[in-house]
Each structure stands twice: as C-alpha cells, then as structure tokens.
Design goal:
Elements (H helix, E strand, L loop, with lengths): L8 H21 L6 H8 L5 H6 L3 H25 L4 H18 L1 H13 L11 H20 L8 H20 L6 H16 L4
Helix pairs in contact: 1-2, 1-4, 1-6, 4-5, 4-6, 5-7, 5-8, 5-9, 7-8, 8-9
Amino acid sequence: MQVTKPPGPAAVARRAQIVEAAVETIAELGYGQASFARIAERAGLSSTRLISYHFRGKDELIARIVAVIHGEIGEFMSARVRAESTAAGAIRAYITGNVEFIAANRARMRALYEIFVNHRPEDGEGAHDAAVDLGVLSHVEEILRWGQREGEFRAFEPRVMAMSIQRSVDGLVFLLETGTDVDTSGYASELATIFDLATRSRG
C-alpha cells in the first residue's frame, strides 16, 4: 500500500498563501475575473504552475477557500457559544457572534458570497455543500433542543427554527452586497430579540 506523506511546512505555507491571494482576488474583482493568472500575480508567484502544483484545479482551490473560511467562523463562534450557561444566551451569542464575524471580515464574506452565487464545479453541482449546511444547522438544533429540555424554550420544530435563524444571519451577507448602509450592531440586536421572543417558553 502506498503511503502519502503529509505536506511539509513549506508546502502548507504556500497553499495558505495561494488561498489568501485567491480570497483577496475574488473579493476585489469578483469570481468571474479571478483567474489563476490574477491569483498568481497577487500572491507574487512567478507562474500559475505553482498554483497547479498545490491544487489539482479551480474546484479544489475553491473548496479549500470555503473550508478555511467556514473553519474560521466555527472557531470564532465556538468559544462565544460555549461560554453561555443557558440556551437562550447561547442562541443570542450565536446570532450576535455571526454578525460580528461578518461585519469584521467583509472581504472574506464577499469572496464566499461570490463563490456561492457563481461557482459551478465540473460535476455540475452547485458550490454550496448541503452536508456542510446541515452540519451547521445541527449545532443550532442542539442548542434549541437543550432549551426545550430545560423549559427555557416553547415547543417548536428545531429544524425549522434553526433554518430560520441561520438564513436570517446569512441574509446580512446578501444585504451588504447591495451596498445598503447597515448598522450591523443594530441588526444583531434586532435578530437576537426576534428569536428570543420566538423561542421563549410562555410558561
């Protein structure tokens, strides 16, 4: 059996450099203009072959970008949610934390938006990974079920509520793309209040 050696530190650093250059290029120029040539230029690479050496093609590079940004969001959120001792506090932290990340990382979120809207892998499927989406929803559902078990939340279908929360948070990215001047702190506060009222127990 052939054993594949993990990439060394230099290869890891080069891959990260390419990913960052691709994110910046997509965010600034849009997905359609983010060719390997432009990405290589931004990364300071002498040839697009250096991109092709580390990534089998654009699909793999785009998949890596999505994984990196989703990983950053998850890391940013987990500490905030885990710090809460109640389900209501955890949902509020989830909503406000997501909005905080979006507001502080607009270029990265714009790149993700461009990928979501425009990228079509060679297999013909959309760039959006349904499994990733369900994974995100499952974390929100767990918090909602926790609140129901503890009597904090009323009876409702956790999947529907989780989807409503996630789509409301994600909607900020699309709203910012319209050029609308958004008070992101106010947006977070209003969303948190809406879902506090929607989930709380009446007992």
